[in-house]
Amino acid sequence: MESTPSPRSIKEIKAEISRLKKDKNALIMAHYYQRDEIQEIADFIGDSLALARQAAKTDADVIVMCGVHFMGETAKILCPDKTVLVPDLGAGCSLADSCDPEEFAEFVKSHPEHTVVSYVNTSAAVKAHTDIVVTSGNARKIIEKLPADEKIIFGPDHNLGEYINSVTGREMLLWNGACHVHDRFSIEKIMEMKREHPEAKVLVHPECRRPLQLIADKVGSTAALLEFAEQDDAPEYIVVTESGILFEMRRKCPGKIFLSAPAEDAECQCNQCEFMKMNTLEKVYEALRDGKPEITVDAEVAEKALRPIERMLEMSE
Ligand code: 13P
Ligand code: SF4
Predict the structure, then answer these.
(1) Counting C-beta atoms within 10 Å of the first and last residue's C-beta, which end of the chain has fewer, N or C?
(2) 216 touches ligand 2 (CB under 6 Å)
(3) Structural domain boundaries of the chain?
């Protein structure tokens, strides 16, 4: 009878990843929501904007995108000649899935006078129907650069759209999409936490619902929340976004306390994105070893999706 191979230790897997990375001239990028051990071995950690920027300028031959599918697609569109791997190709995104490309195309067609602005959390096919892509890190800046009377369609995240409308005074037409993690935080439980921790500041991602944005001390992308925590002097923070960000917050601000905000359903770990957590250290190793699973994007779609991504990079300089 064949014996089951004994599992390698984490230390061995990390050493193999490091060796393969050099051999293949690969860059490992990780979003802040990735598992701690993946953030630990990544060459670059960032929010969606920083990951896109880094992908656009790297001279690596292989990009291992430890994030979700649309992040891999964005990197592939920016670097068509590179091999882009996502350790688990099943790592999707409920927000991207809330925007069907054909329905979105119909919506765009029925509002011909509008500029189409899409959040980066979309499929390449939706980006192909878009004029400018934005992330939560640059949406405000980019919208403010458009003429005040410009008619705008914004999709798919309704909560982010409402936030941008509120801070810019625009009346963008919003698609009704949401992220299942950010849309489920409980304002009641967060208010309760705030009573128990009166000194804590509340950090909220703009994909959260409007009432949470209103009670926040800071609303911002993952990178913006991190930067706020680093520069601010409060001793404690209630963090209302996917809990993976706490790893980098605790690393960058060792003396401070970060509390992960609870979701409505106390039974589930709803402040974790199961798609982001599908990538594991073992899968990163296997992806590097085997050169798969690789992201591919239809050439015609990629060509159409490239321009709005490039416009984002130009406009957020
Ligand atoms: P940012 O990294 O742009 O803050 O986006 C959060 C997110 O939901 C990524 O999936
Ligand atoms: Fe998508 Fe939400 Fe997961 Fe981000 S946290 S990848 S928006 S499902």
Answers:
(1) N
(2) no
(3) 10-91+276-297, 95-179+302-315, 182-260
Q: pLDDT tens-digit profile of 94-136?
A: 999 999 999 999 999 999 999 999 999 999 999 999 999 999 9
What strand order describes the sheet that includes 152-155?
132-134, 115-119, 152-155, 173-174
Task: Please give the radius of gyration of the chain, using alpha carbons only, rounded to the nearest integer.
Answer: 20
User: Which amino acid belongs to residue 291?
Assistant: G
Residue 93, ligand 2, Cβ within 6 A: yes
Strands of 188-232, DSSP E? 201-204, 218-219
| Domains 95-179+302-315 and 182-260 belong to one CATH topology | yes
pLDDT for 1 beyond 60 = no
First-to-last CA distance in the chain?
A: 61
Task: Give the C-alpha separation, 185 to 180, whole Å.
Answer: 9
d(CA 256, ligand 1 centre) in Å: 23
User: 34, 204, 207, 213: which to mutate for ligand 1, most atoms within 8 A of CB?
Assistant: 207
Q: Which CATH architecture has domain 95-179+302-315?
A: 3-Layer(aba) Sandwich (3.40)
d(CA 212, CA 64): 34
Q: Which of 73, 97, 182 has most ligand 2 atoms within 8 Å of its beta carbon, as the pocket-test mutant?
A: 182
CATH of domain 182-260: 3.40.50.10800
- 10-91+276-297 is a CATH 2.120.10.30 domain: no
Asked if residue 94 has its Cβ within 6 Å of ligand 1, the reply is: no
The pair of three-digit structure tokens given for residue 243, joined into one six-digit string: 């809990």
Length of the chain counted residue by residue: 317
**Nearest bound ligand to CA 157?**
2
Q: Is the pLDDT of residue 5 over 80?
A: no
